[in-house]
Design brief:
Length: about 270
């Protein structure tokens, strides 16, 4: 038995206003990641693809720990630093989860750099695990900006950490005990910046198949304007090591204790 038996779906689209899709994603056990490139022309696409390539070397393992994730991040930074286009520095965000185990129990190891997002949907509630590395998020944390105003703020596209693009900011990590029925959503800001969280939660609740859910979320972002590249990866935990086996569980039907450190933050999506 794998640490966590999963069902997975993924979808991506350049959106309605972009010629190039600078998003890349990885949706292969035990890694489920989204990278949103920046740098203009093809530099952003090359940066996000380079990061995914470095993490792809971990595919096929039973689980990945934090040391393996940090080593892949270090290799990814070096790979992105070698990319440039017309004198502009390439960079990318990165967000998602790796499957890991602690004392024989399955866990989600979440990682984030930038303003792509990782959510967990459990017990009918959508919880933002990652915290945006963005100017507006810092203003919200300082009490200088409300979540409602953040969506209209002219600085909503400015991120404070990235892989490459002259940024040396570290990644944030969170370790969460997994439960059968968990549904993880990893997305670029082309989704979170267009579609209200209430609508995202509704789709995750109503669309049972993870591939159908990912496709529906991308389509919904296009209906809301599709102003940026859009990527969604949906991961359902079917069985988790360390828990009693049982029948397959609908993602919305299982309770999950929320960690105080991983409450949703109100933040605007940015154009990475």
């Amino acid at each position: 038995m794998r640490v966590i038996d999963v069902r997975v779906g993924s979808a991506t689209h350049p959106g309605l206003r972009r010629r190039v899709n600078e998003d890349s994603h990885l949706a292969e056990y035990p890694l489920f990641l989204v990278a949103d490139g920046m740098g203009g022309h093809d530099a952003g696409a090359a940066a996000s693809a380079a990061v995914v390539t470095e993490f792809r070397g971990l595919v096929g393992r039973d689980s990945v720990g934090i040391d393996g994730m940090r080593a892949a991040l270090s290799r990814a930074r070096l790979a992105v630093e070698r990319i440039g286009h017309a004198g502009r520095a390439a960079g990318t965000t990165l967000s998602g989860v790796a499957i890991t185990q602690v004392d024989g129990n399955g866990h989600w190891l979440a990682v984030n750099v930038g303003d792509s997002r990782t959510y967990r949907f459990a017990d009918g509630e959508l919880e933002q695990i990652s915290v945006d590395h963005s100017v507006v998020q810092e203003l919200i944390d300082a009490g200088e900006l409300t979540g409602e105003a953040a969506g209209r703020d002219t600085r909503r596209n400015e991120i404070t950490r990235a892989i490459g693009a002259g940024s040396g900011g570290d990644a944030d990590f969170w370790l969460l005990a997994a439960e059968a029925g968990d549904r993880i959503l990893v997305c670029s800001d082309g989704l979170s910046g267009e579609v209200p969280e209430e609508r995202i939660a509704g789709i995750l609740r109503d669309v049972i198949d993870p591939q159908d859910a990912a496709t529906r979320l991308v389509h919904e972002a296009m209906l809301h304007g599709g102003r940026d590249n859009i990527t969604a990866v949906v991961v359902d935990a079917v069985r988790v090591a360390g828990q009693d086996d049982g029948d397959d569980t609908s993602p919305a039907a299982v309770t999950s204790d929320a960690d105080e450190d991983t409450r949703p933050r109100a933040a605007a999506g940015g154009d990475a």
